[in-house]
Amino acid sequence: MNAPADRRADVVLIVDDVPDNLAVLHDTLDESGYTVLVATDGPSALERALRAQPDVILLDAMMPGMDGFEVARRLKAEARTAAIPIIFMTGLTETEHVVAAFAAGGTDYVTKPIRAREVIARITAHSLAAREQQQARNALDAFGHATLMVRMHDGRIVWQTALARQLLEQHFASDGRRAPVAVLAWLQRETARLVGLEEGPVPGSPSLVVDAAASGRRLRFTLHEASGDGQWLLVLREADDAAALEALSLAFGLTPREAEVLYWVARGKTNRDIGDILGSSPATVKKHLEHVYEKLGVETRTAAASLALARAPMRPHGT
């Protein structure tokens, strides 16, 4: 069964110090339309995984030097390879070895001698699930929802969308492995208030605006929901004036000046204040605001401000 012509073949990385033992599996994967890569030790496996971004990794548990468990831990600690499913291949069936495989980040395991058709069935299932998860994360990014899952007790980022990783790298010089210190401290304070909430939406969606030393800009972290096992879903957005103005303009079809007026309304400014800021008269500001009301489908200043705050990142009043 060959891969459909309208998409690339799935890539499988086989990691085994004696790859000749897996010749039958290699041939069966190739005949089934997969692109097969091979690494014979831990360091080369890490390098190939990072460079090739395979869809699935078949990983021998017991290798000389860096064993498969350590390889898996390092793959999961690297943001660019953390989402790749890892299927351990092992001749070890003792419970502690199976537990070690999953603890290291394994998605599944198969025992040697390898049954090629069984392995292909598992590869198909896990690559499909991973692809669906990636599509969901891409959809979040497409709507501007940079999202990350943080494990509260140590601050480790369990997974993140590409946009979240980009923002963390840009504003915090982050390696993508752990949440910024200030964010983790805030998360620990907030979750202490939420005793008993193990899963589900967080009431009030508390948020934190952080000054990012690396970029001199502000980012807003919003606590969205608890996902079980001490893991919390955060949504990250840039909170500078330019980002807010662009968001308002795009969300409501506003002109640049209308977006500025709405921005300052949401910041609690009067028409006279806004006129002073923008170099316009209060009467001109009022005219712009009438157009804003019409485009937003509202009739009051409070309703317009509420919609603006829901759709664009804002700094606190007075900052």
In short:
This is DNA-binding response OmpR family regulator/DNA-binding CsgD family transcriptional regulator. The longest helix has 27 residues.
Keywords:
single chain; alpha/beta; Rossmann fold; Beta-Lactamase; Arc Repressor Mutant, subunit A; 3 domains; five-stranded parallel β-sheet; 12 helices; 11 strands; 46% helix
Describe the structure.
It holds the Pfam family GerE. One of its GO terms (biological process) is regulation of DNA-templated transcription. The modification 4-aspartylphosphate is found at residue 60. GO terms for molecular function: phosphorelay response regulator activity; transcription cis-regulatory region binding. There is one protein chain. The chain has 319 residues and is of the alpha/beta class. The protein has 3 domains: 11-139, Response regulator (Rossmann fold, 3-Layer(aba) Sandwich); 144-238, 2-Layer Sandwich (Beta-Lactamase); 241-311, Winged helix-like DNA-binding domain superfamily/Winged helix DNA-binding domain (Arc Repressor Mutant, subunit A, Orthogonal Bundle). It has helices at residues 23-31, 42-52, 68-77, 95-103, 116-142, 162-172, 181-193, 241-252, 256-266, 271-278, 282-296, 301-311; strands at residues 11-15, 35-39, 56-60, 86-90, 108-111, 146-151, 157-160, 199-201, 207-212, 217-227, 231-238. Strands 6, 7, 8, 9, 10 and 11 form a 6-stranded antiparallel sheet that branches. A 5-stranded parallel sheet has the order 2-1-3-4-5, with helices on both faces. The radius of gyration is 25 Å and the shape is elongated.
